[in-house]
Amino acid sequence: MSGPGRRGMAVGVRGTTRVYGILGDPVAHSLSPAMQNAAFAAAGSSGVYVPFPVAAGDLAAAMEGLFAAGVAGLNVTVPHKEAAARLCVALRPRARACGAANTLIRSARGWVGDNTDGAGLLASLAEHRFDGRGKNVLLIGAGGSARSVAHAFTRTGARLLIVANRTPKRAVDLVATLKRRDVYAADLRVLANPEVLGRLDLIVNCTSTSLATATLPTIRFADTRRDVLCCDLMYGKPSRFLAQARRAGRRAIDGTGMLLHQGALAFALWTGTAAPIGAMRRALRAAIRSL
Ligand code: NDP
Among positive and negative, which fits the CA dihedral 83, 95, 155, 262? Predict the structure, then answer.
């Protein structure tokens, strides 16, 4: 099909089509191409979004080459977010704060890095009528996603933030970058501490345990408040953490909304226009159903 695509239909590739994509290793599993191509089609703009499998040793060459080839914007996923941030000519404050970039924006001088993961989670929580301001939050995990999420919660004005991690030193290192009072590092014993659990408004599982056969120590959900919100960043697969929360009668949401909103924020950064969120949500749901 050539010429402007009809709403909701793929726009044909032509000489003026702008190319966007995602760098990762692996990248074949990524749902971002389905979601972003639906966005470009719905917005009626001639853009196409493709997966670029890039090995760690090739990241610098890939970023330079795709810039030289006129690529208009990129997402970055595992394992490249930190290396990509180091290779950018400039970083927006969110990427600088957490030392990782998931979105690359084209500038005259080269790639500018931003990080929409944490803001994506906050937007997803807002859809569930959760506002982080003044709230007590437990983050489990201190890896790449936890860093972006922790910085987002400190920016939004959470009252208490606890970062609990299997390897306590990584939690300590993350907390040191937050430069705030009322932010604490802990090990996973905190998951069985009734005093802490009873104060929480939100628990976010930022670990990769839902993907692995290994599981987190059991959380004593009975000690949490009835209205605590439980969120797992993982999406598309059953989560033991969320299943336990639901069995205890607690509200539980997965990472689909975060994925949607980090992508919508990236789309807006690249194009300067609001993302067609409805079309992106429908495409994402369809992609998850077909996993
Ligand atoms: P990282 O590899 O950077 O971090 C993994 C974290 O999980 C570390 O804190 C690690 O602890 C912890 N962990 C791993 N195994 C265990 C275990 N057996 N017991 C306890 N803790 C464990 O991963 P990411 O932060 O990049 O991703 C984490 C999750 O978030 C993944 O499921 C990913 O798919 C999801 N994600 C979702 C997004 C979305 O848009 N919804 C966006 C980004 C990520 P330790 O430091 O001790 O190794």
Answer: negative
